[in-house]
């Protein structure tokens, strides 16, 4: 039986790279995104792989249910892996962020992940050995200035993952994982933070930090799906933060 993965944010970036990897390894792939043109491009780049597009705003519970029901109808009832990947990266000093920007980060990065878990659970329960993977971040290891709301959502996703892995593993045999990348050169970094006149990409370069290729994150998703680690850290910056958090937290503010 062909295994099946559903990926949110599948129209670009990490979602697109993950779709390409899993399709190349024989999986049926479902894409969820608000960007229909991006999903069409992902499918075209896949070169005829078993891939389908499903319009999805992750902030909408009804759209979640409809998208997953449509996908499992194509996959023969299987949902081996749900990749909760869609996210936004608005940042800047807390007092300069608009109410709308703060709400968007919380609604997409946290509520969207919770809604995905809700909608996905019946289908994951029906698929032996299923897995839920949530995109977290190095910001889920250390909350840096100007990333307060974003980091808050990623710490919350990390906590949700820990709790659900224990709950669902015991009750249903479902594994729950995160991937925790450092900075990825995706459209998220095109955003200009509140109180700044340069993009996130320009800021990362000015700090002398590295970009982790999306293909490496896709491989981390595969490792999370097939391995035993609950949190898979990706990229030099994220690995450095993970080390310091564990062994030298007093150095983190530097």
UniProtKB/TrEMBL annotation:
Query: To which protein family does this belong?
Result: Belongs to the short-chain dehydrogenases/reductases (SDR) family.
- Which terms does the record give in the GO molecular function aspect? oxidoreductase activity
SUPFAM superfamilies, sorted = NAD(P)-binding Rossmann-fold domains
Q: Which Pfam family, an example, fits this chain?
A: adh_short
The protein's UniProt keywords, in alphabetical order, are: Oxidoreductase
InterPro entries tied to this protein: NAD(P)-bd_dom_sf (IPR036291), SDR_fam (IPR002347)
Oxidoreductase as UniProt keyword = yes
Top-rank lineage group of the source organism: Bacteria
Q: Does the keyword Oxidoreductase apply?
A: yes
Could you identify this protein by its name?
Answer: SDR family oxidoreductase
